[in-house]
Amino acid sequence: MGIFDIFKSRPSAPRAVSQYQVTVDSEGFTIAGASYRQAAFKQFAKSIGASRDYRYSVKVFLIPERDNQADPDAIAVYSPQMQHLGYVPADLTPKFHAMAPKTRGKQVWRMEVDAQLYFWKNLWLLNIFA
């Protein structure tokens, strides 16, 4: 099993009960697992009228996946239409968990963040700025 094989499963979107927006800074990162979710990226790009020639400022949601067997600290990235686009890289998840409100039981939080959608080397990709 390769390092990206853990991203191949398609878990259902968890029920988000607490939403808030985070402050954007100038540093960004590319989400993990995008190459496995190109169908979702194509639908997302089509929904905003994106072409392969430009970069687009978009909002996406970060939602923790507590039931992720490969990584219980995983944070999934979803489009506004709740299309699963990928994951926050594992080395960055502590930053987002630290910013998140404390929840009880099975409740989960969700963050709305600024991102940039673009096409590069035959792939739709997403950079998050948060």
From TrEMBL:
InterPro entries linked to this entry: HIRAN (IPR014905)
Xref: Pfam families: HIRAN
Keyword hit for Hydrolase: yes
Residue stretches making up the HIRAN domain: 29-97
GO molecular function: hydrolase activity, acting on acid anhydrides, in phosphorus-containing anhydrides; nucleic acid binding; zinc ion binding
Keywords, alphabetical: Hydrolase, Metal-binding
Protein name: HIRAN domain-containing protein
